[in-house]
Each structure stands twice: as structure tokens, then as C-alpha cells.
Amino acid sequence: MSYVYKRPELARQMARQLLHPSVLDEGLRSGLFLSGLRRIGKTTFLLNDLIPALEDLGAIVIYVDLWSDPQRSPASLIRDAIREKLSELESLPATAVRKLRRLAGADIGALGFKFGFKLDTLGEPGGATLAQALGEVVDQGRTDVVLIVDEVQHAITSEEGNQMLLALKAARDAINPRPNTLGHFLFVGTGSHRALVGELTARRNQAFTGATSVAYPVLDKEYVAYLLQRLSAEGFTAQPSLDVAVKAFQTLGHRPEEMIKALRQLHFHLPPGSNPDEHLPVIANTLRSTAADIELMKLEQLGGLATAIFDRIASAEGDARGLFSADAAAAYSKAIGREVKVEEAQPVVNELMATNLIMRKGHGLYGITDPFVQEMWRERKAIEGKL
Questions:
Q1: In this structure, are 363 and 289 located in the same domain?
Q2: Residue 3 located in a structural domain
Q3: What is the pLDDT of residue 42?
Q4: Quick one: average pLDDT of 14-33?
Q5: Could you point out which of 34, 201, 209, 328 has its C-alpha 20 to 30 Å from the C-alpha of 195?
Q6: pLDDT for 70 beyond 80
Q7: CB 154 within 8 A of CB 141
Q8: CA-closest candidate to residue 43, choices 25, 59, 66
Q9: Whether residue 208 sits in one domain with residue 191
Q10: Which of 175-189, 196-210, 267-281 has the lowest mean pLDDT?
Q11: Are 138 and 264 contained in the same domain?
């Protein structure tokens, strides 16, 4: 049996903030972007918690993962997800439509969805625009429509993707400000590339500039307690204390899969009579180092100049600046043993951002994307300095 750790309270809170915002939450109707490192449970939360919570409040939810098919363009994935949902709505029985409207707190009114446009040409030249289509869904459903785009940063990797985001913004602006609108169109984007997700709301040339961007709320002590309770229920006796397990989870970057690996290693390799609290931190640090090695292998493949630039950013206290200065070029030259010109740095920085090793934090400001990779880099440099 597969267990999924549920976060219903967090989901209900977010759903209420989106669908029934207070004065302080009304800005969420401009768009909500959640960023967090890979493998910390974002998609699991969306599918098992947030979407059901939104639907329990009567919202129509459309979900698409832009990593689901890397061979297809993000724009076509979004367009097809919307078409599929609208087709599903047209085939809903009358009882399901009644329930939907009742959940949304709307008058029952006429039954059934019937759209005045062809679904196969939606969003195409000559077909209905997304603003027209989503507006009809809102009006016929008498409720809110929420589009959730997982790994949203991939939408800005192509001109077609950028145009899709602009079309979705146009839909938001056409639907939400209407007097006495029967519902709203809400956009939620999540991503593992913090730099690019941040750019989606911070850069003036982006469709959703000014929207709300926040860090994904990572799993915490309650999740670790849940894991330990499951171990106890299944008869595992060699368990660490809660406080030690929580620290190990933090060491592992709040990644559930890594925590389960650590507990598994503890169970199978703990010497008889040994103290689990002494062994789990060692296991967690080893797994953390292994995870960092996987990321740093990408750095090695980019070459010496990339390594020198990465080191300058990782070694900085706070945000790194001046990556393209004459002083920086001199430091790179010394590090790799050849002359480096200033203009060589920019394309390498772009490659480092493309592989999610570094992130742009502002004009001329850069940081390491994963703080644990930065910690491991610094620790290893400190050890090398002592040798």
C-alpha cells in the first residue's frame, strides 16, 4: 500500500486565500507562484491536497505539468490541458453540474455546459481565445476557474511559451475586473528553478509581473513524527528520537525521499546495541554529500571557467556581485591558468543558471540555487585548505 502524507489544513488555508481572499490576500488574484527545490513534495501536495481543497469549495481546477512531456512545447501542453477540461465539463451529467454549483454557493440555474466555440481550435488562429473560453467556463459554471501549471518556468524557454503566458494574463484581465462577475480566473504556478520562477513575477517584461511569489512551505516536524509513528506501528524498534530525526530531515533539505533512505539505512545497518541517535546524523550527512555530488557533477561538465565562477558565488558572504568585472576576470584567469576575458563570463553564467546551479537574485546579483550544495562546496574547500 502506498502512503501519501496529507497536509489538509495547509491546503484548506491556501484554497480559502485563493477563492475567498481577505483584503490582504486579494493580490493573489493577480497570480500565485510557489518556488522550492526539487523533491520536497510540491507536486504531491498539489495533486493530493490543494486540488481537492479547491474543488471542495466549488472551483473548477485545470492542472498541467510542463515536465510531463519534455518533447512537447509548454504552450501546447497548457492548451491541451484546458481543452481536455472543457471537454470533460461538456460531458458532465446534470447531477454533477448541480453539485458543482452548489459547492460554489451559486444558484443552480440552467444545467450543463455548452460552449459556443470549437475545442479543437481553442487558442489557435481563427479559434476562440483563451480569454473567451475561460470566461464562458466561469459564467456557465458560476464559479472560479483555477489553472495550476507545475514547473511553470519552462513556459519562458520559448517565444510560444511566453505568448501563452501573455494569453493567460489577458484572460485574467478580461474576466476578473468585470462588475458582478460570477467567478474569477486564478493562475497558480510552481517551479523548482527559483531564479526563473522569481523572474516571472519580478521582471517587467513578464506576463505576471507584480503577482505574488512565495517559497513553498516545506514539510516540518509533524511529517517526521508521522514517519516515526509509522515505523513504530510496523514494528521497527531501532528508532531515533524525534529531535534528532528532525535535524536529520533538515540536513537532507526537507526531502521526504532522502529521509526515508536515511531511515532505511539506519534500520538495515545499525550495529546491534548501538544508539540510533548517534548513527542517523552520520547517515544524513553522507546522503547530503551524495546529493551534492550529483549536482556538482554538472559543474565539472561545464569546465574550469564555470567552476571558477561558481566558486566566486559560493564563497561570497550574501549575494555575489561583480562577476563581469576586470577583477573577477583576473581571479578566473588565476584559477584556471589562462587569460580570461570579461566577455567570456556571461555565456558561462547563463549555462550555470540553465542547469539550476546558480540563480539571479537581482540586477548584477547572484547566488547558489541549492543552499546545501553551497554548504558542501564550502566545507570541502575548508578541508582542502587544511591539507
A1: no
A2: no
A3: 95
A4: 96
A5: 328
A6: no
A7: no
A8: 66
A9: yes
A10: 196-210
A11: no
